[in-house]
Amino acid sequence: MSEVEPGVEPRTEAGDVLTEVIMRTFRLYGGFLEAAEVMTKPVGLTAAWWQVLGAVLRQPLPVSGIAREMSLTRQSVQRIADLLVAKGLAEYLPNPAHKRAKLLRPTTSGYTAVSRLARAQHAFTNRISSHVDLADLRTTLTVMDRLVEALDAEDL
């Protein structure tokens, strides 16, 4: 039996597997980000702009809400939101729940830019998903949702 250093958590098989999941997630994020940059360039967006616009397609949100939803810093979302507004792709609206925290929503131009991405996005996701069984993709999504819930419950 190996000894564990005092104050150091012992390794577990589940912990080791999760570490590998995290490492693969970093790799996937990098690849998906690279693909997003390629897809967004022809429509005049960046991956970051698409991410922020995507967060408010269904309903306007304050910058802090977008940051929480996307696990980004409020400051980085604020910078991107201000750029989107300056480019005419989004607009700020009054927030009835909070005077100072305005809501962000896409303009018609913002919705149009995101919808122009649809063909490239669907072509990309169809190509990549063709290498993985649909049931496995559904399981992956379920597990990711459970990991997000577990992470959200952590007091970091």
From TrEMBL:
SUPFAM superfamilies, sorted: Winged helix' DNA-binding domain
Superkingdom of source: Bacteria
GO MF: DNA binding; DNA-binding transcription factor activity
PROSITE patterns recorded: HTH_MARR_2
Gene3D superfamilies, per the entry: Winged helix-like DNA-binding domain superfamily/Winged helix DNA-binding domain
Keyword set includes DNA-binding: yes
NAD listed as a keyword: no
Domain HTH marR-type: 15-149
Biological processes, Gene Ontology terms: response to stress
InterPro entries, alphabetized: HTH_MarR-typ, MarR/SlyA-like, WH-like_DNA-bd_sf, WH_DNA-bd_sf
Protein's name according to its UniProt entry: DNA-binding MarR family transcriptional regulator
Keywords: DNA-binding
